[in-house]
Every structure is written in structure tokens, then in C-alpha cells.
Design goal:
single chain, Nucleotidyltransferase, domain 5, 5-stranded mixed beta sheet
């Protein structure tokens, strides 16, 4: 069975792994995200060591963004303008291609996680769904009609503008571009800075932080439901580890939509409509490996019908 490499590149950590087309992860390494030079040196060393023992067929990269996905653009292969300023205009794919002469898949971290869920997790059998991560940042990707979401660049649903009642919440937000967009108000760093804690999970569930979080996330999810009509909304990320948060979001989404979408999944089965990832914390890395498989199939002109 062919061996594929995957990179799940996040603002806090990189996960590098190797696995197969069945979603089996054989080996994995976690690397702290520092500078491009330091981080990428460790990434390259990991895959060189793997390749010295077993031949890699392809590598898939699922990375934080924004990134350029237009193959006709001079900045294709770059991370462009992320909040993590040290990575701005970094030629991620170009650096990897310079070291490894094998096919490479290239997409956002959330599209990668969506592909992982489509292949092996909670989105199996669906053709239109979204995957949302609520953590260091907020991002969303997914599929429409069985194809991963791309466009002018790619969706940036984490930076949508939502109602912000400055009487209830005087916090200005942490997004360096928009201030009080969804990510600016509801990401992990936003909770930490608003309430002066090291981790959002440190706050007890009866803390007012969680009522705000429910309102912001439920508003966003209701908008996603109305704009894209996804068959399912899959929600992961560190903030969602807070026990009891997801059911409260589901209930609030149902209230916000107020019967407008007359479908059983919204009216009576919201807990089956907005769900945790089927792969847990493995969605991203399994998706990166699936991106590698897809790149291998495309390069070798083998028909590929899996997203």
C-alpha cells in the first residue's frame, strides 16, 4: 500500500504524519510553530527521515491561511496575510517542492479537515457540508456539490461580521484586520484577552463568557445554514472542548432560525445537524494525507471521485 505524508499546519503547532489511503496514521510528529525557518527545518527533516526508509508517494499540506490557491497566480503556493505576521508571504509549497520531487496537495487547514471528515468521519455520504474550527483562530471550509470550497481565494467564514452589542460586551476584539469580526470576538485568544485567563477552558461553564460564546457562534452557524444550506455543520477546535457548549449552541441556533428553514434536521434534530468531528482531533492530519492521495491520483491521471 502506498505511503502518503501529511502536514497539518496551524498557528500554534504543525503536525507531520505518514499514513495510507484508509486513513491509518502510522507515525506522527508535533512541532511548535515558531519562525518559518525553524519550523520548516524540522518538517523537512521529518519527511527526509521517513523517505530514507520508505518511499513517500506524495505529501499533502493543509495550512492556516489565507493562502493563494490560484495555480495561475505568481503567489500560488504562498501563505499570504495571516495574523501570524512572521509567516506573511511565505512560499510554503515552494520550499517543500524544492526538497521533495513528488506530487503535493495544497489547501487550507479547514478544507483539509473537511476532506478528512468526508473520507473517514462525520461527513461520509454527504456532498454539501462545512467544517468549522474554533480555536486559536476561527476558520471554516467544506464541500459544495462534492467539491472542496474554493473561489476568488477560499472562504474566510471565520472573519464574517456579526452583531456586536457593545453594552453587553465592551471588548473590542482581537482581529488585527477587523477587530470585532467572529474570530475577533469568539476565538480562544479573544476569550483569554477579554477575561484575563491563560486558557478559555479554565473558565467554569456558569461564567458569562460562555453565554457570549454561544450567542456569537450560534449567530454565525445560523448564517452559514441560510447561506450555504449545508447538510451538516461539523465543529472542532480547542474552544469546543468545553463540555456542554455544543448542545447550547444547537439550541440557540434553533431559536435564531425560528422555524424559517422547514427541515427536520433544523426543527427537531439540531444536535444531529451541528456535530463534533467524527475523527476527533485527527480530522486535519487525516485530511492532509487525503490531499496527498488526491495529488498523487491527479498527477498520474488516475480518476479520483472522492472530493
Amino acid at each position: 500500500m502506498k505511503l502518503f505524508g501529511g502536514i497539518e499546519a496551524g498557528g500554534s503547532k504543525f503536525i507531520c504524519a505518514v499514513g495510507d489511503v484508509e486513513g491509518n496514521v502510522e507515525d506522527k510528529l508535533t512541532i511548535k510553530t515558531t519562525t518559518p525557518e525553524e519550523t520548516m527545518a524540522q518538517v523537512i527533516k521529518y519527511f527526509q527521515n521517513v523517505n530514507s526508509n520508505r518511499t513517500l508517494s506524495a505529501i499533502g499540506i493543509a495550512t492556516f491561511g489565507p493562502i493563494d490557491l490560484d495555480c495561475n497566480s505568481p503567489q500560488y503556493s504562498y501563505i499570504t496575510t495571516p495574523p501570524k505576521t512572521g509567516w506573511r508571504y511565505f512560499d510554503f509549497l515552494g520550499v517543500m517542492r524544492a526538497k521533495f520531487d513528488i506530487p503535493m496537495g495544497w489547501d487550507t487547514d479547514v478544507n483539509g479537515a473537511a476532506l478528512g471528515e468526508y473520507r473517514f468521519g462525520a461527513a461520509q455520504g454527504l456532498n454539501t457540508f462545512i467544517y468549522v474550527t474554533i480555536g486559536t483562530g476561527i476558520g471554516a471550509g467544506g464541500m459544495v456539490g462534492g467539491k472542496l470550497m474554493h473561489g476568488l481565494i477560499h472562504p474566510e467564514m471565520g472573519h464574517m461580521l456579526i452583531p456586536h452589542d457593545v453594552i453587553k460586551d465592551k471588548f473590542a476584539g482581537v482581529c488585527p484586520f477587523h477587530g470585532n469580526c467572529l474570530e475577533g470576538l469568539a476565538s480562544g485568544p479573544a476569550i483569554q484577552k477579554r477575561w484575563g485567563v491563560k486558557s478559555a477552558i479554565d473558565l467554569p461553564f456558569d461564567h458569562p463568557a460562555w453565554d457570549l460564546e454561544v450567542e456569537y457562534l450560534a449567530t454565525a452557524f445560523a448564517n452559514y445554514a441560510m447561506i450555504l444550506s449545508p447538510q451538516k455543520i461539523i465543529v472542532g477546535g480547542g474552544v469546543m472542548k468545553r463540555k456542554g457548549l455544543l448542545p447550547k449552541i444547537c439550541s440557540r441556533v434553533r431559536e435564531i432560525l425560528n422555524g424559517y428553514i422547514p427541515h427536520e434536521m433544523i426543527l427537531n434534530k439540531t444536535n444531529d445537524y451541528i456535530v463534533a468531528p467524527g475523527l476527533g482531533e485527527e480530522s486535519g492530519i487525516c485530511g492532509a494525507i487525503a490531499l496527498a492521495e488526491r495529488a498523487f491520483m491527479q498527477t498520474n491521471k488516475i480518476p479520483y471521485q472522492k472530493g
